[in-house]
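Problem: given the chain below (120 residues), write out its structure.
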Amino acid sequence: MGAVISAALTAAFSEVYEAVVAADGVAGLDHPALAASKDLRTPALDMVVTAFTDVGGTIGMPVLAIMIMAVLAFRRRSWTPVILIVTAGLGSLLMTIAGKRLVGRTRPDLSDAVPRTGST
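Solution.
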C-alpha cells in the first residue's frame, strides 16, 4: 500500500513539476492570483499576513518545533520526538533546497511583496 501511495504521489508531483517548468497550467495562475491578492491589501491584512509568514519563517518555525519537541519529549519521557522532529526538519530543509534548484522559478518582484511596515 505504501508503494502505491508513493507511486501516486510521485506521478502527481511530476505532473505539477512539468506544468510549472513549462510555464503553463498551474504557473498560468501566478499573475492573476498575485493581481487579485494585491487588490485585497489593507494595512490590517498586511500585518496579519506578515505575522503568519514570520511564524513559518527561518526563526519562527524552528522555535515552534523546538517547543513542541521539548513538550513531547518531556511528556513521553522519550527521545523519539526529538529524533523524529530533527529528522523531519532536516528532510524539509533538504527538500526545499533541492526543490528550489530543480524548479528554478523566479520569485515575484520585491515591489509586489507585502511591506514589512504593514502599509501599502
